[in-house]
Design a protein that fits this description.
Layout (H helix, E strand, L loop, with lengths): L3 H12 L3 E5 L6 E5 L2 E5 L4 H13 L2 E5 L5 H4 L5 E4 L6 E6 L3 H20 L10 H22 L4 E6 L6 H8 L3 E6 L7 H4 L5 H8 L4 E4 L2 H14 L3 E3 L4 E4 L2 E7 L6 H9 L1 H14 L5 E8 L6 H14 L7 E8 L6 H21 L7 E4 L5 H10 L2 E4 L8 H9 L6 E5 L12 E3 L4 H13 L2 H17 L2 H12 L8
Parallel strand pairs: 1-4, 1-7, 4-6, 7-8, 8-9, 9-12, 13-14, 13-16, 14-15, 16-17, 17-18
Antiparallel strand pairs: 2-3, 5-6, 10-11, 11-12
Helix pairs in contact: 1-2, 1-18, 4-5, 5-6, 10-15, 11-14, 12-13, 12-16
The chain binds 6-O-phosphono-beta-D-fructofuranose (F6P).
The site of 6-O-phosphono-beta-D-fructofuranose has 11 residues, from helix 2.
């Protein structure tokens, strides 16, 4: 286990004298107009939630797309702002994208081609040459922003995710004195699935400019090695998990991402949370014997319809729970300009209406749908209120909501129903693991959860908490930093 101060010491030791730059599409703090006032919020993004505490510990510059409507108002003339706004620890540098760039690079190639390509959820990827061209241009713009910061310095650049597959190659063309690592936050599919992308070679070539490529689990590392082996001319050194191509080696490693266990536990323990729980009970009439919760970005990969159907089936099979059980679905709108997301939004809304209509009694409805952005305090209060949480992703790189739920349960109680097809399922084996495609399996798990005796609930939760406490986000970052610190800067 590593904590924030140990990570700080490690970063100071290993990264001293070097510039540390993180690059991602999503920014950790978004400034928006609320009436006449500017306020900031934190996006619903596992990536930013995990990396923000790491950056707070390590310091450095984080370059990301400025997506808030008031983002430009608060930056300096270099488009920088110190964050977290209330207690600055590092620099956020915002990069601006035009509507056309956002459409082609973010909505288009990143989220309609690469996202469905990498998640096995049977949504057909859309490959559009115009989107691909915009994607390449935007990767170049991120590279220009990184190179402007690096100049003649030695720098470690830590790139995030599938939006920036060409970035390392483009940076190194101009700044060879950079060591770069890229972390892939979503699954990597097998070769058969990946090769349908018309630009598969360029994408792999871009990623292999990195010195290190990280995935959540070994299975995705193996898929990546196989994909590279079958597509590019190169040498795979299996025992070292390395790819050697044109004299350059790229190491491939699993680093299961996590949360800041102590921060979440701390947030869940304050008096403010107790008050927030009471407010929620009162506002939504959440006083039933069993409360269950699902917290997700509204995304077709999250298996939300499947879990709603399971709640419907559970109540139909066990009518004695009507009036005694409420499921709270928190849905954060996401990628709202994309058709598949519009469809899933409609499907979820219609399903909830139907199920509530079928089972309602007086004021009681089985499903409470909160379709809005909630504060970290409200989210943790809901997690504390719940008897059990359902994470039923059809496919998910890790799923940090599952780990947050576990971290929030300092009372030692609570049950996690978790999809086998999340990276988290490999570590959180004391959860009730389900195949999310099987509505019957989720229904059975719900039945098991409502009937589980307290000693079993506590035994399982204590093991789950030990896992997340041990493998927290600081250990994740510490492992990556230790790995990149082994590389030597090229001469020149
Ligand atoms: O974790 C995968 C990911 O796509 C991140 O890159 C991203 O920040 C998060 O999900 C949320 O998605 P978005 O940034 O598109 O809202």
């Amino acid at each position: 286990m590593m904590d924030k101060s140990e990570l700080q010491r490690l970063a100071q030791d290993k990264l001293k004298d070097y510039l540390f730059i993180v690059v991602s599409n999503r920014e950790p703090y978004i400034h928006s107009w609320v009436g006449e006032e500017i306020r900031y919020s934190r996006p619903a993004s596992g990536l930013t939630v995990a990396l923000d505490p790491v950056m707070q510990a390590c310091g450095g510059i984080w370059i990301a797309y400025g997506s808030g409507d008031a983002d430009r108002e608060v930056v300096d003339k270099e488009d920088k702002i110190s964050v977290p706004p209330e207690a600055p620890q590092y620099i956020l540098k915002r990069l601006w994208l035009s509507k056309e760039e956002e459409e082609g690079y973010y909505d288009g190639f990143s989220n309609q081609a690469l996202w469905p390509l990498c998640h096995i959820v049977h949504v057909k990827p859309k490959f559009d040459e115009k989107d691909w061209n915009t994607y390449k241009e935007v990767n170049q713009r991120f590279a220009d922003a990184v190179c402007a910061e690096v100049g003649e310095k030695n720098a470690f650049v830590f790139i995030q995710d599938y939006h920036l597959t060409l970035l390392a190659r483009k940076i190194k063309e101009h700044c060879p004195r950079v060591i770069s690592a890229q972390f892939w936050h979503i699954p990597w599919p097998n070769y058969e699935a990946f090769r349908i992308c018309p630009w598969h070679e360029e994408i792999l070539d871009g990623l292999l400019a990195n010195d290190l490529v990280g995935f959540h689990i070994l299975h995705h590392c193996n898929n990546f090695l196989e994909t590279v082996d079958r597509i590019l001319e190169c040498r795979i050194e299996r025992e070292k998990y390395a790819i050697v191509r044109k004299g350059h080696s790229t190491f491939v490693r699993p680093f299961p991402i996590s949360v800041d266990f102590h921060e979440v536990s701390g947030r869940a323990s304050g008096e403010e949370v107790t008050k927030e729980m009471e407010r929620l009970r009162h506002q939504y009439d959440l006083r039933q014997e069993f409360i269950s919760i699902g917290i997700d970005r509204l995304d077709y990969t999250k298996g939300i319809p499947e879990r709603l159907k399971a709640i419907d089936l559970f109540l139909s099979k066990n009518p004695e729970y009507e009036g005694r059980f409420t499921f709270v679905q928190v849905g954060e709108p996401s990628r709202v300009h994309i058709d598949e997301y519009k469809k899933i939004n409609e499907e979820i809304g219609e399903l909830i209406d139907e199920i509530n209509w079928r089972h309602f009694r007086g004021r009681w409805r089985p499903i409470l749908y909160i379709k809005e952005h909630l504060s970290p305090l409200t989210l943790v209060a809901l997690q504390r209120l719940a008897n059990f949480s359902i994470v039923s992703s059809l496919h998910d790189g890790m799923n940090l909501v599952a780990k947050e739920f576990v971290s929030s349960r300092l009372d030692g109680d609570g049950i996690l129903i978790l999809s086998r097809f999340t990276g988290a399922a490999q570590e959180l084996t004391e959860a009730l693991l389900v195949n999310p495609y099987s509505v019957d399996a989720i229904t059975e798990a719900i039945k098991k959860a409502v009937e589980m005796p307290e000693d079993e609930r506590r035994r399982r939760m204590s093991k789950l908490r030990a896992v997340v406490q041990e493998n927290n986000v600081y250990s994740w970052a510490g492992n990556i930093i230790s790995e990149i610190a082994k590389f030597e800067f090229p001469e020149g």
